[in-house]
Design brief:
With 168 residues, this protein is of the alpha+beta class. The chain has three helices and eleven strands. It has one domain: PK beta-barrel domain-like (M1 Pyruvate Kinase, Domain 3, Beta Barrel), CATH 2.40.33.
Length: 168
């Protein structure tokens, strides 16, 4: 029996609905069915994994993996009246059914990998320039999550995304 006042938030996991990687800074995002997360490095094959991302020279945590909610992408497309796809967001992992903002400062599982949410991934003019889609205002405070890989594993489309309660 649950304790009185116990929260039932995040009882249902979210889901990975897309994975995108780019080999070079400002390069096109390619879609994959799975990606290998490597502790301390990021997603194999992505620009930030090899230190070739636009912001790789900025020495701060949270540059290994970026995530965004499919719901935010869909809302931005509607609000800006443009065809804005998940790859246009320049984020690596697209989720559905979980509030990524709630994962800042927390460890969470994506497939067999454990990530730690570092900070919000607010939209920037660089993303808008590359995508050519005027969605900056629509993505403020819902532009995604910057995360680091705590323990490596495989992330696949269809995998669950949920808080790692034992580490929180």
């Amino acid at each position: 029996m649950a304790a009185q006042g116990q929260s039932t938030e995040r009882s249902e996991p979210g889901e990975v609905v897309a994975i995108h990687l780019a080999a070079v800074a400002a390069g096109p995002m390619s879609s994959f069915n799975e990606a290998q997360a490597v502790a301390g490095r990021g997603l194999a094959g992505d620009r930030y994994f090899v230190g070739a991302g636009t912001y790789s020279g900025v020495p701060e945590p949270g540059r290994q993996v970026t995530l965004i909610e499919a719901e935010a992408i869909e809302a931005a497309a509607i609000e800006a009246c443009v065809d804005f796809q998940s790859s246009d967001s320049r984020r690596n992992v697209v989720t559905r059914g979980i509030s990524l903002n709630d994962l800042v400062g927390r460890e969470f599982r994506v497939g067999t990998a454990t990530l730690r949410g570092v900070d919000f991934c607010e939209p920037c003019s660089h993303m808008i320039q590359i995508s050519g889609k005027p969605v900056l205002r629509s993505l403020v405070h819902r532009g995604g999550l910057r995360a680091d890989v705590v323990s490596g594993g495989t992330i696949r489309v269809g995998d669950a995304v949920h808080e790692n309660r034992s580490a929180s």
